[in-house]
Amino acid sequence: MIVRILGEGQYDLSDDAASSLNDLDATVESAIEAGDEAGFRAALRQLLDGVRTAGAPHEAESLAPSDLILPMADATLAEVKDMLSGDGLIPG
Amino acid sequence: MSMWQRISLIFRSKANKALGRAEDPRETLDYSYQRQLDLLAQVRRGVADVATSRKRVELQINQLQVQSDKLQGQAEQAITVQREDLAREALTRKSGLTSQITDLKTQQAQLQGEEEKLTLAQQRLSAKVEAFRTRKETIKATYTAAEAQSKINEAMSGIGEEMGDVGMAIQRAEDKTAQMQARASAIDELIASGALDDATSLNKGDDISRELEAMSSQSEVEAELARLKGGSAPQAIEGGQDGGEILAAEEPAQTQTSESKDTQ
């Protein structure tokens, strides 16, 4: 599958690798729900590191859409909430 | 549905909506290619803006560094004439500058980071735009309504996502740049208002500067005097002790007068 880290680009990830990142993914989500900014940042950093380590950069000329889009490494909790609500950030 | 899938869907549909405005799919292709070129130009301007801000911050760091070095010099000067109070004052003011310099250096590093990220985004988008241009021409050349529509949808989906991503990166960089510029111009105002200058400049009329200035001219005179004494009569070091008491007790100007009186 193709995973995009916003601000960085796309990575190719095997399905196995993707599912092994599920735990980290869940940690990020629960930190967001709890409104835990520090926990969110730490968990997001781990998740993104996991994607970078397990994945390979997707070819630059490709125009393929991603299966998953992850926030940028320095995203704040508020920014991710904005993305979820569909407001702000995304230029339309 | 996971949170990221939700984000992905929202992100993509928003980005695609921005592209799919024309009636004829071929027009859509041309229109979105134009949008890509516009965005690419915007990213280039963004990189230039961030670079300008970064250089401005660097300039301010240098200015403050010069002032800080000057205070360090004043402190050393004060110590040589046993004025610990003045040295302490100079060092206190210097430490205020040091924290401002540290703050500016953090800002400078952040701007540098934004600049690098934006440059990468620009390279990425350039590659995608070129790929899109090629694909667009192929689709238009072999255009049949049914076949083209699916190809267009596919290409648009990918390019829309890329443009949304790069667009977001430039928007964030612009926001950060604006914050940095606000902070930098606050320090500009401080410098312009003389608040920093008064505390640091040798030539301005505040207490520490006046004293240090007086002290420095005094010590220059002393140094000159010592040089004169040493140079004129190198062998007369012992003899110099006789006149030494008088010379040390008198002001330099008076010394000259008394010397000329002596010669008369």
Any key phrases for this structure?
heterodimer, A: about 90 residues, alpha+beta, 4-stranded mixed sheet, 4 helices, 4 strands, disordered C terminus, B: about 260 residues, mainly alpha, about 90% helix, about 0% strand, rod-shaped
Structure description:
The complex is a heterodimer of chains A (92) and B (264). Chain A has helices spanning 15-20, 22-34, 37-54, 77-85, and strands at 2-5, 9-12, 56-57, 68-70. In chain A, helix 2 runs antiparallel to helix 3. Chain A is globular, with a radius of gyration of 13 Å. In chain A, 35% of the residues are buried. Chain A has a 4-stranded mixed beta sheet, covered by helices on one side. The longest helix of chain A is centred in the middle third of the chain and has 18 residues, at 37-54. Chain A has 92 residues and is of the alpha+beta class. With 264 residues, chain B is mostly helical. Chain B is 90% helix and 0% strand. Chain B is built from 8 helices and no strands. Chain B has helices at 3-19, 25-80, 84-141, 145-193, 195-200, 207-232, 237-249, 252-263. In chain B, helix 1 (3-19) packs across helix 4 (145-193) and helix 2 (25-80) packs parallel to helix 4. Chain B is rod-shaped, with a radius of gyration of 35 Å. The model of chain B is unreliable at 198-204 and 233-264 (pLDDT under 50).
Proportion in helices of chain B: over 70%
The percent range for strand residues of chain B is under 5%
Taking pLDDT < 50 over at least 5 consecutive residues as the criterion, the unreliable ranges of chain B are: 198-204, 233-264
Strand content of chain A: 5-15%
How many strands, which pairing sense, and closed or not: the largest β-sheet of chain B?
A: none
* Order of helical and strand elements of chain A: EEHHHEEH
Indicate the radius of gyration of chain B in whole angstroms.
35 Å
- The helix tally of chain B amounts to 8
Nearest-integer average pLDDT of chain B = 76
Number of strands of chain A: 4
Judged by helices, strands and strand pairing, the structural class of chain B is mainly alpha
Oligomer classification: heterodimer
**How many β-strands of chain B, per DSSP?**
0
